[in-house]
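[Automated response] Your request has been received and processed.

Submitted sequence:
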Amino acid sequence: MHLAEILNVINEWALTIISTVGYPGLGLVMFLENVFPPIPSELVLPLAGWLTLDADAGFTLLGVTIVGAIGSVTGAFFFYGLGKWFDENRVRFLLRRFGKWFLLSEDDFDMALSWFEKYDEYVIFFGRMVPIVRSLISVPAGLANMHVGKFALYTAIGTALWSFLLAYAGRMLGAQWPLVSEFINRYEHVVIIVVLLAGAYFVIDRVRRLARDRSKGPSEPTAPAQTESNLD
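Generated structure:
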């Protein structure tokens, strides 16, 4: 069986799990999607969004957003731990040895490293909306010993936003929900550019605010009011 056929089988399995098991299936698939990038969230989440139109399916946009984020955050900690407990050379060895089975390469890892170096910890937030990067970006965070709480927070916000946008798109398209995946795959470079611009704006805005706060300096203490006895 060729790799493409294997991936089709995996995708069909993922869609079946979500349709039949509900939220637990969605959480499981989103966890696996982070550990095994060939499972595309661009296919999974629009389906869940479409199912929100079916009262019998039991899905809501809020539920899909929360469960999608929980599954993604849990999966992200797999790669975070990989970076935290292994050094860079061991990570590269694992990618050379097993990366092809996950459709990951050292080039993908190098890109994640360069993004983390360029955009610092903020990339953990907006990198969740970029294919491939959203999985591997957790490794540099682990290598850098990024604070676990901050990592979890940025990951949760980024994955929740991504989950909501894709689920909402699937809901709007209805039975045409597969078009979401086709659009992202076709215009992947455009999506990456948009996300990078949004991320750059986020970082610049944050830096400007910090600089503005620092320029103000500490507020001068006010002199205590004089009492009547002192005036006398």
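Summary generated for your ticket: The chain is about 75% helix and 0% strand. The two ends are 98 Å apart (CA to CA).
If you did not submit this request, please reply to this message.
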